[in-house]
Design goal:
By secondary structure, this protein is of the alpha/beta class. It has two domains: 3-91, Enolase-like, domain 1 (2-Layer Sandwich), CATH 3.30.390.100; 101-273, Rossmann fold, CATH 3.40.50. 30% of the residues lie in helices and 19% in strands. A seven-stranded mixed sheet has the order 6-5-4-7-8-9-10, covered by helices on one side. A three-stranded antiparallel sheet has the order 1-2-3. β2 (27-31) and β3 (35-39) form a beta hairpin. The chain is globular, with a radius of gyration of 18 Å.
């Protein structure tokens, strides 16, 4: 179960050190080679015994805390991993093109056509995710369920029957990702959110698409997070990025005309909202 974590930690250069740390209202930031972003946990013990010791710590040492059962320590560890791996230079190398030429649409918008008429599970209640029910057979699994959601233990029953599974990357910190990937082996799996490490290592464990964030304007994003910003990071220094294991992963059957019509309408509505 720890192989995924050990491989992520081992990918961190041994000579890299943390230059700064910020525990924001919505996001945790670690600065080293780049700025790593992770969602601030909503549950768990919030005392940080590492406080005062993080700056100048070796990044690989801090990354090791991703294996901690303290949710805040684990999130700090994941932010450290992202600070080393989610750099513009590394992502450009993986993508084979410049950051400026990479699509910046939200992950769900990019997959609108591919999920038409399919069985789709989303781990984590993302903003406006319920609108996807207009174009697919949607199931949302959430640790703190909202109306219409299923509690996350339902994953054992739901995930093996899905065509596509979108998984919030905070599942790395809370240690549920290995089991979720095991349950989703027959599905196309998208790891979603700014907490996503943009590394091919995750393809070896069953992830097909990485939909994460690269910080391209670190000072701007740092200030927004420091001032309590949430979704504002995407307009202030955070660029959405998608990297696929295989850019040609066709789904089984074409969607019906009715699903396609709904998908086009959903796309137009989201464009207006943007």
């Amino acid at each position: 179960m720890w192989s995924l974590y050990n491989d992520l930690i081992a990918a961190i250069p041994t000579d890299l050190r943390v230059s700064d740390c910020l525990m924001g209202l919505h996001w945790i930031l670690i600065r080293s080679a780049s700025t790593g972003v992770v969602m601030t946990p909503r549950e768990g013990e919030s005392s940080i015994e590492l406080a005062g010791k993080i700056t100048d710590m070796p990044v690989r040492q801090l990354a090791g805390y991703v294996k901690s059962w303290n949710s805040f320590e684990a999130s700090l560890g994941l932010a450290a991993i992202n600070s080393a791996l989610n750099t513009p230079e590394r992502v450009e190398s993986l993508a084979g093109c410049s950051m400026a030429s990479l699509p910046q649409d939200p992950a769900f918008d990019r997959f609108t056509e591919r999920i038409c008429g399919k069985r789709v599970a989303v781990i984590g209640h993302f903003p406006k995710v319920e609108s996807l029910a207009e174009i697919c057979q949607l199931t949302v699994l959430e640790r703190h369920p909202q109306q219409g959601d299923l509690p996350d233990p339902a994953c054992e029953f739901v995930l093996p029957e899905q065509d596509l599974v979108f998984v919030t990357a905070t599942t790395i910190a809370n240690k549920t990702l290995p089991r979720l990937l095991e349950l989703s082996r027959q599905a196309l799996v998208v790891l979603v959110g700014p907490s996503t490490p943009l590394t091919p290592i995750l393809f070896d464990y069953g992830v097909d698409v990485l939909a994460g964030t690269v910080v391209v304007q670190p000072q701007t994003l740092w200030r927004v997070v420091q001032e309590g910003g949430c979704h504002e990071i995407f307009r202030n220094g955070g660029q959405r990025v998608q990297l696929g294991r295989d850019e040609c992963c066709p789904l089984a059957e074409p969607p019906s005309p009715a699903w396609e019509t709904n998908a086009r309408e959903l796309g137009r509505r989201r464009e207006r909202e943007r």
